[in-house]
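My hope is that you will study the record closing this message with an eye to the fold:
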Amino acid sequence: MQAEPFEWPASGGTLRGLCWRPGEAPRGNLLAVHGWLDNAASFSLLGPSLARAGWCVWAVDLPGHGQSDWLPAGAGYALADYIPPLLEGVTHQRGASWYYLGHSLGAVIGMLALVAAPGTFVRAVWIDALGPMTTPPGQTADQFRKAIHHRLQPVPETLREYASLEEAARHRASRFSPSDMSAARIIMARSLVRKGNVWQLRADPRVNWPSTFRLCEAQIQEMLEAIACPVTVIGARQGLVKKPGPRMGWLSQGNFVSLSGGHHLHMENTALEAVTNEVVKAFA
């Protein structure tokens, strides 16, 4: 199934992404939000699968990622900074109901989006993430100092370059998930732009900056308890969220599903059918 590129205007710049449409009237609009340093192409397997199940899948590149614009000079990429552009983008597609699907960072952003705009999304599925990272007590000052130090440095004028797409995919697979080369190629093909004889990363270097502050566990509890819609968390047995943990109990309508696979299990052929079935079941 061929993906359609799309653009959504937003106050911080244009969001771009990939859309997979069903062959008939959709059951609803599905906003698919990728993980850190990923892009919309990470849904290249799951998107068509969900479209065949009747969903209109809108996989968006987050600001500073993939082909979306960078945020303006002076801006940062705190978790909350992603919310307004996404909500602005959703308002451009009226009619059908909206459902939220997030992987990793996209799932964490989903927590904030559901709190910020209750009623916008009917249901949500989070893949291998359940709330953001925390900073242990006693490390807040160091975290803040480190973050400000990065913000005071000039943004690099030259972005990372690779001799080939294959080299970029090998680098990605050797350092980050997914370690599978075919999945790494899919992500890096959208993360790069050809500049003469080299391939250059598109991502805004500022997405690598550390957070100035992180929520504490009590604040995460308050946020999760504020979510009224049903949320299904798909944990990856070889990934990050192997067990539900106490956070799961803070969701008023939470459901935890454990599936075999790594952190990018939605890009694994062996797990794709199971992930698709769980998403369809969660959004039924």
User: Anything to note?
Assistant: The first strand starts at residue 4 and ends at 8. The two ends are 23 Å apart (CA to CA). The first helix runs from residue 46 to 52.
